[in-house]
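During the second half of the funding period, the structural biology subgroup turned its attention to how the target accommodates small molecules. The most pressing case was calcium ion, which had performed well in the primary screen but for which no bound structure existed. We therefore specified the complex as follows and requested a full 3D prediction, including the ligand pose.
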Amino acid sequence: AKKVGRNQVRFFDTRMQQQAEHRAELEFGLRRALKENEFILYYQPQYHSNQQLLGAEVLIRWQPPDQPLVSPADFIPVAETTGLIVPMGHWILRTACKQLVRWADDPETAHLTLAVNISAVQMHHHQFVDDVLSILSETGAPAHRLELELTESLLIDNIEHTIDKMLQLKQHGIRFSLDDFGTGFSSLNMLISLPLDTLKVDQAFVRDMHRDPRDLAVARTIIDLGRSLSLNVIAEGVENEQQLKSLRMLGCQCFQGYFYARPMPIDAFIEHCQLPVPL
Ligand code: C2E
Ligand code: CA
Ligand code: CA
Ligand code: CA
């Protein structure tokens, strides 16, 4: 038994070492990526009632030279633990703001909004509010076209601080949405405490709602909750027409998902949405 135990320890040692090496490699790569501009923003359209294009959610991708695209699920956690998410987040926000500026002059695009994901580490950074405000003034972006997506996990510690930061940014017109609601350690108290504009119905509930009555019940509850709190409600992960039908039946009016379009680079987004190309 002792032998097995020791082998197990060794096995875990090796695995932990491999993980540590993988992390170190990723961190090294991310530092280079920041310097060498290897990140790309993808845009996934968001629609109101099927037809009207609201704007897009901005999703980061990493394109290392001569290697396949890396998904954010693989590098955001490392960016968070290393603090690299802070400079990365600035780049994301600045790039999104510049896009809003390009759209602002043309009446055909001036109404478009961009939703940008904000990680917990970013939000809790002491300079967060100042940094966002200086990116806004530096780019001249219309603040009311910008929505920041927060996840619940971020809001657990220091909710008072979070509310304070949100209120400061809301004074400038920035909007907030709560992402992934219902998937983490959510509390209803948090939902009613935060100065939110939008509630996102997580794709986990959308996925099976047209065939599992329990998922349907949860989706209905979230949508009703959002509506009774006068929040915009948007469903993400809409992949087929049945899901769309169920969501509409429940009173959800804004949608995002593969049924409409996958996230794509800006040129493809502009073409997909048949938007005028800015000069
Ligand atoms: P999220 O914010 O919940 O983003 C939604 C994810 O669902 C995206 O994955 C999107 O591509 C995917 N998705 C959209 N429609 C569908 C659909 O119909 N079906 C399915 N199965 N999936 C769909 P992605 O782009 O791989 O991003 C994963 C996560 O990484 C995001 O989850 C977010 O938490 C994080 N992330 C992505 N971009 C950023 C960023 O710029 N900053 C930060 N802090 N986090 C980001
Ligand atoms: Ca999101
Ligand atoms: Ca989400
Ligand atoms: Ca998610």
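Two results from this model are relevant to the next phase. The radius of gyration is 20 Å. The beta strands are 39-48, 52-62, 113-117, 146-151, 175-181, 198-201, 232-235, 254-255, 264-265.
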